[in-house]
Write a structure and sequence with these properties.
alpha+beta, 32% helix
Length: 133
């Protein structure tokens, strides 16, 4: 009796469990129904699932006319980083522009957040992208 005899000791083979078969004689086996998708529907599904290309665009706001560009980009589904630092020397203009941006974002059902502590930069997102604050 050696050291490895106990390890190599074979267990008796277990008998396989009996399977229950239904007696169906004379009938071919049933095939699973598989729905075949036509090629046009497959191509249409690929177009529907195709991800939309989005961009993160930086817009430097120097006047009220730049608000139209921000609005257009958000409506197209792009994210906008609005840089208001050029207006920093005019606090009353910064306040009016930021109020208009907030109103525009609310009207478009988007989200807005300040992203810089020392500069006036805002992140503006379209309605389907929310900012966790």
């Amino acid at each position: 009796m050696g050291l490895f005899d106990k390890i190599k000791k074979e267990e008796p083979r277990k008998a396989r469990p009996l399977t229950i078969k239904k007696d169906v004689k004379g009938q071919p086996p049933a095939k699973a129904e598989v729905e075949v998708v036509p090629l046009e529907e497959d191509e249409l599904a690929k177009q529907i699932v195709k991800p939309q290309v989005r961009y993160v665009k930086k817009i430097i706001v120097t006047s009220y006319s730049d608000l139209e560009a921000i609005s257009r980009e958000v409506q197209e589904g792009n994210l906008v980083i609005a840089d208001l630092t050029p207006l920093e020397s005019k606090p009353e203009v910064v306040e009016k522009v930021s109020e208009q941006i907030v109103g525009m974002v609310r009207a478009l059902d988007g989200s807005i957040a300040k992203i810089s502590k020392y500069e006036i930069k805002l992140l503006i997102t379209p309605p389907d992208i929310k900012i966790a604050k």
